[in-house]
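Figure-free illustration: sequence to structure, shown twice.
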Amino acid sequence: MNKIYFGLWQDLYTLSWPVRLLIEYVVFLLLVFILFKILKRFFTFIKFKYLLINLIVLITTKFISLVGKGKEWAYRADEKIVDWANAKISTPIKLGNRVKKILFLMIVFLYIIAALPDLPISAYLDDGLVSKVSVAKQTFQSWESRISNGYSNYLPLFSKIEEGKVYIQVKKDLAEKVKIYKNASKKSKVLIKAGKDGIEYKDKFKKAGKKYWLKVYSEKDDVDGWIPEDVVDGAQLKYLVKLDI
């Protein structure tokens, strides 16, 4: 089961953030829908609605009888409560159209906010605004990180892996592109700012001070260089360093 679960996460992480979030949204909503159906059947089975309405009637009528004992308005109120209960029991539970529209708009709004930093439109927006909404992206990705913890130790289910090649898993909360340096030092020249995918590990690392540096190759840009451990997924970094020792 772990092989399937984490393998799917490996495939998912090859996708861009907006596409990945959209898939996660659809899966989450599907699970919520299934859970709602299960709970609805369970509550129907135990007659939860019937018990709840009768409890409300019992408490309300007892209160009215204490406050308006022997008074005509109390009898009328008692009858109205019973009529209300009978009407509610015979009416199926449904979410109103207005509630559904509000929930749908909230879902769309949250998706746009979380995906905005990676959408093309972000290039035309104020940097301060994009930085602020990036908090939503980081929050979603922190949840994503919790439920996918350990995925990097498994092979993807559908993606093709070229034999002998290992690709760097860039940290998910990295907001900018990966800087590839000429040498293993941040004082060295930055050769390029590469995309997060297609950065191949070249089976070599070194430790400069307290920090590990990995030798890499960007396939898209055809550039060799070094990247610091800061940008590499923690689990993969430990695996690669241990592998080479």
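We now fold a second protein in the same way, so the two outputs can be compared directly.
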Amino acid sequence: MIRLQKWLSAGGACSRRKAEELIQAGRVAVNGQVVTELGAKADPAADSVTLDGKTVAPDVQQKIYIMLHKPEGVVTTAADQFGRPTVLDYVPEGSRLYPVGRLDYDSSGLIFLTNDGEWTQTLTHPKFESKKTYVALIKGIPSPEALNAFRNGITIDGKKTAPCEAKLEAEEPPNRAKLRIVLHEGRNRQIRKMCEAIGHPVLSLKRVQIGEVKLTNLKRGQWRHLTTQEVAAAFCGPKSI
């Protein structure tokens, strides 16, 4: 017997956390009967599970893990109501994949795509504090005190951020600087808002690492499958900078 949350996520329908919402909303049925209890289970050998009337097969498909170098101007969703390009436009057609977490429309860099709901759940759940590394080109040269603000937490949207790491990598003319920033939060446009708060707006932003998995030499728009070691390494936080 398999819990419905695991059935839906393992079947590639959604993440386990999203599955809980769908079950409670009455959108999941077992053998034609709507089930809203989160502890409910089903038997792959005997039962049929549907989401919004469509059958979701149990875990019969091969797990797929992909890393993509997302270009700027691409949304991290499966579809976009405004017709903008999505990350799925860059991976093999027909793959039942979904992005792991988010990356801003106007940012570039590393993002994962998968059909493994449990892996997604672990990487995106706040309690696991999966660390992500970014390189930001900012306006102006930040002082040591400004960089310390990152380590102490910066108030954005009325709430203080968790301490993060920020290192000045280079100064670039005219009057610009490159920062390497490591976060384990995933708040909306967090780095851009933090840099704005210290008086150094972001000019460009690129995610270069998730856990111990690095973007390396993938060009914008290119993708490849993750290795078995990288699938495990995505959970690890990068060493202190």
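Summary for the second example: The chain is about 20% helix and 30% strand.
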